[in-house]
Amino acid sequence: MTSRRPLLALRSAAALLAAGSLLVTLADGLDARPTALAFGVLVAVGELIRPGARLGPDPATPHLTASHGAQGTTGSGLREAAPLGAAGALSYALLGEHAGQPTHHGVAQVVCVVAAAALLGSVPRLARGQGPVLDHLVRRILAVGFTAVCFQPLYHRGFFDGWSGPAYALLLLALLVLTVLCDAVVAAALAHSATGWPFGPLLRDELRAVPGIGSAVCATGAVMALAVAVVGLWALPVFSVPLLLTQLSLRRYAAVRATYRQTIASLARATEIAGYTPAGHARRVAALGQAVGRDLGLPEAELTVLEYAALMHDIGQLSLVDPVPAGATADLPAAEQRRIALLGGAVVRRTGAGPQVAAVVERQADPYPEQPVAARIVRVVNAYEEKVRDAGPGGPLTALEELRLGTGGAYAPEVVEALARVLGNRGGGGQGPGPGAGGRRAGLSDLGRGWVTHG
Hints:
two-stranded antiparallel ribbon; 455 residues; 2 strands; elongated; mainly alpha
């Protein structure tokens, strides 16, 4: 059941912080304009060159990427798509001196400059419709506001006068690490509110990215603040170069991942084009399978393997002389299912999709106690999609009951129950009928038809 309250609360907090900071800055005036302009340009450039999002829903997972937002567009591990902008924003929040002279800008000016620069850098993306920008701005404003509130008032009141050398550097790093951790919580909360996926796995994926690009952002932000305090604004271009090169590499990596995903999606359509499976079957299995994987708490790396395996789970049928009627393999004899699965695994290994993906495809027909979790999900979701495809109004409930009856050996019980939860949650959308049997049946029926007919 998706709750919009955290989403609205975070967006409202960011909006109030930005609006209040703008009013205070307009009233007090902009202090040290060259410094504010330099950091503003750095943040804007970082936003301009961050990897572009996919235009529209991913053809492989149409039900998922449209709602997941920035998370879904960058893929696993690219949690901070604009590290240069993040480092520049955080270093400005931690700036206490400029070329040996104390600064006098406060929290309001920091938030105002960063918010304006981030918004300016996001204008081309908004014009081209390249994915969601609002939640990215919310994260940036809340993160820099948190850092500035923790540092600026205390610094101007002399609380850090006794800190110098390595101790002061460690203090800045500690504040940045705390900021990155809080930002991970905000990012997970935004994704949970927007998609309804479990908060725990989303937070775990965010935290796993912290030692990677998060550590680079923290280190660069602290070094920039310390260097500008000593040598002035000339330090910004010098210390921006390593993170700029990293961000350009992230752009290329994101482009490669997008091309690779499109290639996998194109391979998955081979069975449809050849007439072995119905149109959109692989995409529906991949979309529903990822939703079930999210419900079960799979980490993002395993979700990617699950997505690719689900897209290509029927590719072994291309080796058959006589096509299976309607591509429905769930009701075939177990030996024939395993033969088709092994043929599919052999094809997948030749595509370069990776041994983990091939193993899931090969083992989707094994008894569920011997299967990896991804293979269990593919088997259950594929069977559900086949059973409900041509059914009437009661098809989703009938299909689920058949799957439950098969949990003795063919289908994993925990996966079947996760599928029922996903169908019920998406069908009810968090509203409508109560928890009674009638409400659940109505939600399942409506949603089951939605999954099957989409695409």
